[in-house]
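Dissemination and training. As part of the outreach component of the grant, students in the summer workshop were shown how a complex can be specified as a set of sequence lines and then modelled as a single object. The example used during the hands-on session is reproduced here so that future cohorts can follow it. Participants entered these lines:
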Amino acid sequence: MNEFDLIKQYFRNVSPVVEGTTLGNGDDCALLQLKPNQTMAVSVDTLVEGVHFPCGASANDIAQRALRTALSDLAAMAATPRWVTLALTLPQHNSDWLSAFSEGLRADLHAFNCELIGGDTTRGALTISVQVMGVVENYPALTRAGAKVGDGIFVTHTLGNGAASLLQVLGKLQSLALPNALCSELDDLFYRPELAFYVAQQLHAVATSAIDISDGLVADLKHICTASGVGAKVNVAQLPYSATAKSLAKGIENTALNSERLTAQQLLQQWALYGGDDYQLCFTAPAHAVAELKEQTPLAATQIGVVVAEQGVQLHNNGQALAVQHKNGYTHFE
Amino acid sequence: MNEFDLIKQYFRNVSPVVEGTTLGNGDDCALLQLKPNQTMAVSVDTLVEGVHFPCGASANDIAQRALRTALSDLAAMAATPRWVTLALTLPQHNSDWLSAFSEGLRADLHAFNCELIGGDTTRGALTISVQVMGVVENYPALTRAGAKVGDGIFVTHTLGNGAASLLQVLGKLQSLALPNALCSELDDLFYRPELAFYVAQQLHAVATSAIDISDGLVADLKHICTASGVGAKVNVAQLPYSATAKSLAKGIENTALNSERLTAQQLLQQWALYGGDDYQLCFTAPAHAVAELKEQTPLAATQIGVVVAEQGVQLHNNGQALAVQHKNGYTHFE
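and obtained this result:
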């Protein structure tokens, strides 16, 4: 099967057709049109087998993680997903693998209503580059710059799912004999992280800056501080943890896996601050504006600190200073 | 050096800033704006070491081939290049390699006036995915569909450089002891194919369809025929060959490399029909419209055939039928 047949069989008609596509997949280029009041947001992310996901991961899972980790950058700018291109490098043609990959892709392209408008398939080590293009309409995009001294620092939903699910995917939890339901929930959280699009759409009017948490809260908050020329003071006592992360932390607390003998609470803190891969948003906004917004509509956001003039990220626990560790959430499966 | 430092050192400020960029490299997404009368053309191409270029090729060369082979798809639609994203997967951090890669990239980003607005760097087998975004303004883009029975079939500039330079890059010409100047010219043609942007801009008003010749003239012309629902009748006697390809064909004619004992003319024909990688355009247009255009402005285009109703590609040599071979220009360095 040559490249053209492969694309036709597995990647044609895999996605919805969205507004603004003048010409989709199948010619030299796709052709796209924006309305006058629309700005296009573009980002690209690459996943490499053995680095960003374990060797032997299911093709369905890989497709969904690749798409979602890329789409997360659109959420961080309060853009609405619209178009995707896929550069897929594969060691060999394997129709079972390709069918599963295209099924995973299809499900998420429909879930996020974006159209696959182009791509390239090549022979080589398994590598997936996804470029996402979204639209920001009638309001400015959220960037990392714009945080003001005195703003509150917020995170969307909860933290800890990224780090907890990574332990599962790395195979580190095998000795715990966790219930199957929890294992598969952790797998799910890794390959299908929940994205913060809905919250982003709600908060764009009040937020002064935003970033998606892929490298860890501390590392990503530093990007906001650098871009905005401000500092951040975070109260770790206010960090919101996911129920799954909480139960895993409890389960690990008194086992050999907890080599540093941390409490469940301390484990959660580490995961939330440095674990990364949560794909939730960290944003800044005047606290009163967020409070007003919460009176009008439920907003899944928790204040965790304040923007200060002194550069860098400071951590404290209800006023007691905490050292910032210089590690980041970079994950490596080799 | 982490990913952020690497991007800052080698890929920030590597390109011009172009019209329509609201926010460039460095945030979660780049932000782009089009004018109301503009359409965006998008394409992605991946090069894998050992498949699309030989192992050990210079980083400067790889960067330029990666960018140009991607840009060629914009030329085929008569789009003007504007934005580029780069997904670069590398086996290790090597500052000499990265400096050379970014220098090659810088030169061509400036040559084609396009801005690098985003990317991702990851660890793995050397793989380069380049996504190009261009603008089609005030006229429809050229697509593969639209060829009409009776139209002339044309190619831009000359053919044969792709196949000739591939022989050099594959190391097949070593026994010939060619002059250094010719060897380096052939290397140049492979890594820096000349693109047909200028001709594309001239002919967009008269052409009914177009494609860039990457897989070989016959294979690419078949794509036009399929998309347009027509057939093509090509007179191989009219194929325009490059001077370099001609001198190489003469040089090979009476050597062991010419295992099929073809004449120089037959070698050139094979290269032009099936060799691919020429990155010239094949387009269709009413012959009289092209003739009129040629009276107003020099147009580097040669008629090589006519569009016919009978599906598929037929070849003849001044009326004498020639069999179409079922091979394509796919190149493999493994």
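The longest strand of chain B covers residues 38-48. Students were then asked to discuss how this feature might be tested experimentally.
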